[in-house]
Design brief:
176 residues; alpha+beta; 5 strands
């Protein structure tokens, strides 16, 4: 069997191992949506985080509420919630999930000229909400960039990552 994508370590991983380790590929290497029909419904939660770094003057604009496009963090919070709700529309093999909660927090870090974003997503379902939390953070940080790009095109979005997931067969996972 020949993989449908180039393996960066062809001597270390066989084609069969490559496909069986990734749930979104069948035995022939074709992409498919994972069948979650037989999984139990459980409470599921995911927490993701990321950061946007900017010029000190840009952070001051956001803090003072004087950005030309308006309430940057308020709009970014709505974008995060909307992003979480629309994850299945953006990520091709994600299941649509009936979210029961999306919470978004921003922390300003004046010393680093940055804003940290943390999103928590929850549902009662058969598959996890990690992608929804990651999408929420991504949407929030991209919205901050969009709303402030006229003042600072050099902003950097950094370190978007999963911090925790809970629920399902694998239980609790936390980042180091």
């Amino acid at each position: 069997m020949i993989p449908c994508f180039p393996c960066p370590f062809p001597d270390a991983v066989s084609a069969e191992t490559t496909f069986t380790q990734f749930t979104h590929f069948d035995a022939a290497g074709q992409a498919h949506m994972v069948d979650v029909g037989d999984k139990a419904e459980t409470q599921r939660r995911a927490i993701a985080a990321g950061r946007i770094v900017m010029a000190p003057a840009t952070l001051a604009l956001i803090q003072s509420g004087s950005a030309k496009k308006g309430d940057v963090l308020g709009i970014a919070r709505i974008a995060a919630i909307q992003g979480a709700k629309r994850t299945a529309d953006l990520i091709p093999l994600c299941h649509p999930i009936a979210l029961t909660r999306v919470a978004v927090e921003f922390t300003l870090d004046p010393d680093a000229h940055a804003i940290d974003c943390q999103a928590t997503t929850q549902c009662t379902g058969r598959t996890g909400v990690e992608m929804e939390a990651l999408t929420a953070v991504s949407a929030a940080l991209l919205t901050i960039y969009d709303m402030c790009k006229a003042a600072d095109r050099g902003m950097r979005i950094e370190n978007i990552r999963l911090l925790e997931k809970a629920g399902g067969k694998s239980g609790l996972w936390q980042a180091d």
